[in-house]
Amino acid sequence: MRREQESRGLTTSDAPEADDAGQEAAPARRRAGRKARETRERLIEGTLLALCDEGVTGITTRKIAEKADVHLGTLHYHFESKDALLMAVLDTLGARLAQQLRLGVAGSRDLDECIERVLETDWIIAERNLAIQIVQYELTLYALRTEGAAWMARRQYDDYIKAHDDAFAGHASGAPAEAIRRLSQAVMAGIDGIILQELAAPDLARSRGAVRDLIAAMQALARTLGLHRPR
């Protein structure tokens, strides 16, 4: 081979590099990876739509595939089971909440304002799409009633509470993590109660007033827990 290259005036250094094919394949791999992510996102959104329409007990992978406008085989390629899709939905909802809380508290001047913005953000998210709130509660109960799936419910609330921990921590530096966690747990208990009341007996004026009361209560709790920075 070397003689043939030399007879054509080529040297080993002039010959095509062995990794050229790999370099050419890299963009194709990136495109494939991007397409796979987009398909997974479509399936997660399709699952959310199916859950809003049918509820947890009513959905099937076929209905999810229809909502996502993909072939059933494509769904099973990306997710091995319906439960795997439900877990992906919970992860997505948790990530969205964390992102919205980060944006909501940006620019807060102190912990009182941070608490106010956190609870206002929590309520805005709920009020804009109460159907998603029903889905979240259904997923929690489904996980608790399904053998071996209780960890899904626990993880869901762990993610939500951590998102609140992170939102408060920036204005409670130096405070014990346990104290911040107690505030987050109380906030979650309070906002969950308001949302459930709104779902059971809709009255936006009452619920918005309850959120204002909860803000004041949580600001007082933060003082009791010693979370406010000294002025």
TrEMBL record:
Molecular function as annotated in GO: DNA-binding transcription factor activity; transcription cis-regulatory region binding
InterPro entries: DNA-bd_HTH_TetR-type_CS (IPR023772), Homeodomain-like_sf (IPR009057), HTH-type_TetR-like_transc_reg (IPR050109), HTH_TetR (IPR001647), TetR_C_31 (IPR041583)
Domain HTH tetR-type as annotated: residue spans: 37-97
One Pfam family matching this protein: TetR_N
Official protein name in the record: TetR/AcrR family transcriptional regulator
Key word Transmembrane helix present: no
DNA-binding feature ranges: 60-79
Region of interest: Disordered: 1-38
Keywords: DNA-binding, Transcription, Transcription regulation
Transcription found in the keyword field: yes
